[in-house]
Design a protein that fits this description.
The protein is mostly helical. It has helices at 2-5, 29-35, 44-50, 53-65, 71-80, 89-99, 106-114, 118-121, 123-126, 140-152, 158-166, 171-174, 187-201, 206-218, 221-228, 232-242, 246-255; strands at 15-16, 23-24, 37-38, 68-69, 175-178, 181-184.
């Protein structure tokens, strides 16, 4: 029982006596499994103080399995979110990449934002919430999460999903209002550069980082080509430039 009390959540604090087959469930984990609830077995402050990464694990479980986070556990996550600063980049990166594997990954990032973790671990994505102008334009944060869910219906590739999450992170820095019109000129190139720092923090390899950056750089190109109605030579240049990243690029463009 003492050992189970040190588990992260009640759903992981269940044991079986290998001799008698008796189930040992002192914290009601089976009930929480049936009710689809994420809850700490003891005081949330104690659980999250012992290992702050459990905050991100709880978010991941909720997003992946469609569970709800119990109110006291949710508040405990918010109170202890600053302690994520002591967790290594590698452990945080692993959790973020696993969140992207969820069928509806937007739920993870909405929860991260609600508990105050998003601005700490993915400030580039959190910045999409900022309203830099009163001029009406699409909400970048909600648009990004919608496109992330869109692309996740068509691919389980985490690198493509990551590119979708980051595809507009260059927009806050490039926003301009001229003559009553909003523009984000060359945001795809700014976003590509910014994405490389995110990929570094997520400990992706050089080839993976390059792929994410290229998809972000070219994500507008299919739409622009469709408007321009290019000739054969223009299409040849596009195909040669994009190369083997073409299928991923069109998956992203469709989602966008």
């Amino acid at each position: 029982v003492e050992d189970l009390a040190r588990r992260d959540f009640t759903i992981n604090a269940i044991a079986r006596n290998l001799i008698t087959e008796e189930m040992i469930d002192p914290f009601g984990g089976r009930g929480d499994l049936r009710a689809k609830i994420i809850r700490t077995p003891v005081d949330p402050d104690r659980t999250f103080h012992d290992d702050p990464l459990r905050i991100l694990r709880g978010v991941r479980f909720a997003a992946r399995f469609g569970f709800e986070i119990a109110p006291d556990t949710f508040e405990g996550m918010k109170r202890n979110v600053d302690r994520l600063s002591i967790v290594s980049e590698e452990r945080i990166a692993e959790e973020i990449l696993k969140m992207l594997e969820a069928a509806v990954p937007s739920r993870a990032f909405l929860l991260l934002d609600a508990i105050g973790a998003l601005e700490r671990i993915l400030p580039e994505v959190s910045a999409l919430k900022e309203r830099r102008t009163e001029h009406p334009c699409k909400e970048l944060f909600s648009h990004t999460l919608k496109t992330l869910d869109n692309v996740s219906k068509h691919t389980r590739n985490v690198e493509i999903r990551l590119a979708m999450l980051l595809h507009d992170i260059g927009k806050p820095a490039t926003l301009r209002v001229t003559g009553g019109k909003v523009s984000f000129h060359r945001h795809e190139f700014v976003g590509e550069r910014m994405s490389q720092e995110v990929c570094r923090r997520l400990h992706l390899g050089a080839e993976q980082s390059r792929f994410v950056g290229r998809v972000i750089r070219f994500h507008l190109r299919p739409h622009l080509l469709a408007r321009e109605d290019p000739g054969d030579s223009g299409l040849r240049r596009f195909i040669k430039e994009v190369g083997r990243d073409m299928p991923a690029l069109f998956t992203v463009a469709r989602a966008d």
